[in-house]
Protein backbone atom coordinates (compact mmCIF):
# COMPACT_ATOMS: atom_id res chain seq x y z
CA UNK A 1 0.00 0.00 0.00
CA UNK A 2 1.14 3.57 -0.61
CA UNK A 3 -0.20 7.06 -0.08
CA UNK A 4 -1.48 8.18 -3.50
CA UNK A 5 -1.17 11.88 -2.75
CA UNK A 6 -1.30 14.49 -0.02
CA UNK A 7 -3.40 17.66 -0.40
CA UNK A 8 -2.88 21.03 1.25
CA UNK A 9 -4.84 24.26 1.16
CA UNK A 10 -2.73 27.30 0.27
CA UNK A 11 -3.35 31.03 -0.12
CA UNK A 12 -1.52 31.45 -3.42
CA UNK A 13 -1.84 28.47 -5.76
CA UNK A 14 0.49 29.78 -8.48
CA UNK A 15 3.24 30.87 -6.10
CA UNK A 16 3.12 27.54 -4.24
CA UNK A 17 3.20 25.64 -7.53
CA UNK A 18 6.20 27.68 -8.69
CA UNK A 19 7.97 27.01 -5.38
CA UNK A 20 7.76 23.21 -5.72
CA UNK A 21 8.67 23.33 -9.42
CA UNK A 22 11.71 25.56 -8.76
CA UNK A 23 13.14 23.91 -5.67
CA UNK A 24 12.02 20.26 -6.01
CA UNK A 25 11.70 19.79 -9.80
CA UNK A 26 7.99 19.02 -9.50
CA UNK A 27 6.00 18.67 -12.69
CA UNK A 28 2.73 20.57 -12.53
CA UNK A 29 -0.34 19.01 -14.08
CA UNK A 30 -3.14 21.01 -15.61
CA UNK A 31 -5.07 23.07 -13.13
CA UNK A 32 -8.67 22.44 -12.13
CA UNK A 33 -11.38 24.99 -11.45
CA UNK A 34 -14.89 24.29 -10.17
CA UNK A 35 -17.10 27.30 -10.95
CA UNK A 36 -19.81 26.08 -8.55
CA UNK A 37 -17.59 25.92 -5.46
CA UNK A 38 -14.72 28.19 -6.51
CA UNK A 39 -12.16 25.47 -5.82
CA UNK A 40 -8.90 25.77 -7.73
CA UNK A 41 -6.34 22.97 -7.56
CA UNK A 42 -3.24 21.59 -9.20
CA UNK A 43 -1.40 18.26 -8.89
CA UNK A 44 2.38 18.29 -8.58
CA UNK A 45 4.31 15.11 -9.43
CA UNK A 46 7.82 14.31 -8.23
CA UNK A 47 10.50 12.09 -9.77
CA UNK A 48 9.94 9.23 -7.32
CA UNK A 49 6.20 9.08 -8.09
CA UNK A 50 4.97 11.06 -5.07
CA UNK A 51 2.19 13.57 -5.75
CA UNK A 52 1.03 16.68 -3.93
CA UNK A 53 -2.30 18.38 -4.57
CA UNK A 54 -2.39 22.08 -3.78
CA UNK A 55 -5.82 23.66 -3.40
CA UNK A 56 -7.37 27.07 -2.86
CA UNK A 57 -10.96 27.78 -1.81
CA UNK A 58 -12.58 31.23 -1.76
CA UNK A 59 -14.02 30.38 1.69
CA UNK A 60 -10.70 29.21 3.15
CA UNK A 61 -9.95 30.11 6.75
CA UNK A 62 -6.65 30.40 8.61
CA UNK A 63 -7.16 27.71 11.22
CA UNK A 64 -8.20 24.09 11.46
CA UNK A 65 -11.07 24.88 13.83
CA UNK A 66 -12.78 26.61 10.91
CA UNK A 67 -13.67 23.28 9.30
CA UNK A 68 -13.13 21.66 5.94
CA UNK A 69 -11.57 24.64 4.19
CA UNK A 70 -8.93 25.38 6.81
CA UNK A 71 -5.53 26.50 5.63
CA UNK A 72 -2.44 24.35 5.66
CA UNK A 73 -1.18 21.20 7.31
CA UNK A 74 1.23 20.34 10.11
CA UNK A 75 4.20 19.97 7.77
CA UNK A 76 5.46 18.24 4.67
CA UNK A 77 8.88 16.62 4.76
CA UNK A 78 10.87 16.46 1.51
CA UNK A 79 13.81 14.05 1.30
CA UNK A 80 16.65 15.64 -0.67
CA UNK A 81 19.22 12.82 -0.43
CA UNK A 82 22.10 13.95 1.80
CA UNK A 83 23.16 16.22 4.65
CA UNK A 84 24.98 18.37 2.10
CA UNK A 85 21.80 18.71 0.02
CA UNK A 86 19.79 19.70 3.13
CA UNK A 87 22.40 22.33 3.99
CA UNK A 88 22.63 23.67 0.43
CA UNK A 89 18.88 23.89 -0.14
CA UNK A 90 18.37 25.52 3.26
CA UNK A 91 20.95 28.18 2.33
CA UNK A 92 19.34 28.68 -1.08
CA UNK A 93 15.84 29.10 0.37
CA UNK A 94 17.05 31.56 3.03
CA UNK A 95 18.93 33.54 0.37
CA UNK A 96 15.70 33.67 -1.65
CA UNK A 97 13.85 35.17 1.33
CA UNK A 98 12.10 32.19 2.92
CA UNK A 99 11.93 32.19 6.72
CA UNK A 100 14.26 29.69 8.36
CA UNK A 101 12.66 28.09 11.44
CA UNK A 102 15.21 25.52 12.65
CA UNK A 103 18.20 23.37 11.78
CA UNK A 104 19.94 21.95 10.04
CA UNK A 105 20.21 19.59 13.00
CA UNK A 106 19.80 15.99 14.05
CA UNK A 107 16.54 15.58 15.96
CA UNK A 108 15.88 13.31 18.93
CA UNK A 109 14.19 10.95 16.47
CA UNK A 110 17.41 10.72 14.45
CA UNK A 111 16.35 12.86 11.47
CA UNK A 112 18.80 15.33 10.00
CA UNK A 113 16.48 18.18 9.12
CA UNK A 114 15.97 21.82 8.48
CA UNK A 115 12.63 23.66 8.54
CA UNK A 116 11.50 26.70 6.58
CA UNK A 117 8.14 28.41 6.18
CA UNK A 118 6.35 28.82 2.87
CA UNK A 119 4.65 32.13 2.07
CA UNK A 120 1.40 31.16 3.78
CA UNK A 121 3.19 30.09 6.96
CA UNK A 122 3.10 26.37 6.16
CA UNK A 123 6.11 24.45 7.47
CA UNK A 124 8.34 22.56 5.05
CA UNK A 125 10.85 20.15 6.52
CA UNK A 126 13.94 19.12 4.54
CA UNK A 127 15.67 15.84 5.39
CA UNK A 128 18.11 13.29 4.00
Present the secondary structure layout:
Blueprint: E1 6-9, H1 13-24, E2 27-28, E3 32-33, E4 40-45, E5 51-56, E6 76-79, H2 83-95, E7 99-106, E8 112-117, E9 123-127
Parallel strand pairs: 1-5, 6-9
Antiparallel strand pairs: 2-4, 3-4, 4-5, 7-8, 8-9
Give a description of the structure.
The chain is α+β, with helices and mostly antiparallel strands and 128 residues long. It has two domains: 1-72, 2,3-Dihydroxybiphenyl 1,2-Dioxygenase, domain 1; 74-128, 2,3-Dihydroxybiphenyl 1,2-Dioxygenase, domain 1 (Roll). The protein has two helices and nine strands, in the order βαβββββαβββ. The strands form two sheets. Strands 1, 2, 3, 4 and 5 form a five-stranded mixed beta sheet that branches. Strands 6-9-8-7 form a four-stranded mixed beta sheet, covered by helices on one side. β8 (112-117) and β9 form a beta hairpin. The two termini are 23 Å apart.
Q: Top keywords for this entry?
A:
128 residues, alpha+beta, 2,3-Dihydroxybiphenyl 1,2-Dioxygenase, domain 1, 2 domains, five-stranded mixed beta sheet, four-stranded mixed beta sheet, 2 helices
